[in-house]
Amino acid sequence: MLHRVAHRVIGCCIVVVRGATPVDALELAQPPFANYQLNGAFDEMFDADGTPRPSYRALMQRLRELTPSELSSRQRTAEVSFLNQGITFTVYGDSSGTERIFPYDLLPRIITGSEWATIERGLSQRITALNHFLYDIYHEAKILNDRIVPHDLVFSCQHYRREMRGVNVPRNTYVAVTGTDLVRLPDGSFAVLEDNLRVPSGVSYMLTNRQVMKRAFPRLFANYGVRPIDHYGQSLLATLRALAPTSRPEPTIVLLTPGVFNSAYFEHTFLARQMGIELVEGRDLIVHDNVVYMRTTAGLRRVDVIYRRVDDDFLDPLAFRADSILGVSGLFNAYRAGNVALANAIGTGVADDKAIYAYVPRMIRYYLDEDPILQNVETYLLDDEQQRAHVLDRLDQLVVKAVGESGGYGMLIGPQSTATEREAFRERIRANPRNYIAQPTLSLSRAPCFIDGSIEPRHVDLRPYILFSQQATIVPGGLTRVALRRGSLVVNSSQGGGSKDTWVLFEGGAIALWAALPPEAQGQVLYAKPSCR
């Protein structure tokens, strides 16, 4: 059937429309949404009455044009691409020991430009305050002396490093690379779930998801006005260069990996290639007279900046764990002397302790004299007797987390737990209350996913990546992690989760202007694209 086509210019966009009856409102009972059911959680694609949100309408129309077999074919193509690139992971403790493709969902998660502007301002504010906090606790400790944050909470943290007291780090930048986990609450606002300040991972999946998505939906992607993320590697390189000693105008930068058996080794090789720097293991480096050198076929070459993907404990067997074979003997002395920079700094883990997290809003007010833009999730500190009693009486309603664990481990989701599991956690909390916090069971927002031939909602969170030297740079997107099991709230890949591409739209771009059209005109739009960007 032929349609009359007209081009209209709106702002800096060409909107292509056809002379046809407007598309009817979506009926969720129709394929491919027959299994799509709304509940009390915020749905990224639909509002409460089942109407598609403006930013998702073009995607919804495209999905209704494709058959399940066509979508399945694109999903298989994406999985083959991941396999060919070696994007796999091994779940520790899995008896089979086999590598798996990193689970990927074909459908993008879409964030509007105005929503992203709030996220960007909030993350910039937060990471600035956290860098102030880290400098402070390793120097004057004013925030502790003023009793804004308890002394005992900081000094009892397993990631607090007394060796770092008085050590000046380059540009006072303790955290150069951060992955902050955000959740969307039922009212549509975003909140911070946790900060990852030590060795945040997952950015390679964000970048490869985008590459795959461009091939899966090339025209849709091109016409949607999505902000690019492929500059991340060069932005990271610029951030690392800014940390180099001032006497080194052409610094040598390396990425230090634990080696091929690390579950994130693909990411280490990927980022080293993106930046054009050497990927090294501890045995490739040596320290002479408090200067770090890299062994090369042409002899020793001085190293100025180390982007380390090795935990504090294993960095230097002379300063930390004596049994470590992953680090470099003498590295800490070279670092303390100011002859080499580390990203992130040693001792940053104290600021992503899940109990310290509860005090970040106070840090923002203390250091910046501002109200937090992004709120925390309500958090109970279990070394407080009253809060502990409250939590122990309500374990079936709350989520309990070990303060130093990650990856979905050391966690109890009360509503999904058994009486035996709750009793075991009750004993652990009583034995070591400082080691646990509790939070309400959040109704994470849900986004459309392609599951077994149909489109169903699954719970998601968002990990944006923040680069920081003198100011914050937030990559417009991030890793949307998905709890692929129906009803699950755990998004970690080690616990059955996966990921999807995150589209942040240009503010005032083509889709934003299309969404501003009257409903009868929206139904006639074939596509919209920028004309003067």
Question: Termini distance?
Answer: 33 Å
Mean pLDDT: 88
Number of helices: 15
- Say how many strands there are: 27
Identify the CATH class of the domain at 378-440.
Alpha Beta
Low-confidence segments, given as residue ranges, are 1-26
> Which value, in Å, is the CA radius of gyration?
24 Å
Give, in spatial order, the strands making up the sheet with the most strands: 15-7-6-22-23
Estimate the global geometry from the Cα principal axes: globular
Q: Any guess at the CATH architecture of the domain at 378-440?
A: 2-Layer Sandwich
Binned, the helix content reads: 25-40%
Fraction in beta strands: 15-25%
Biggest sheet details: 5 strands, mixed
Briefly note the structural class of the backbone: alpha+beta
What is the CATH topology descriptor of the domain at 378-440? Dna Ligase, domain 1
State the gist of this model.
The protein is an alpha+beta fold and 533 residues long. The model is unreliable at 1-26 (pLDDT under 50).
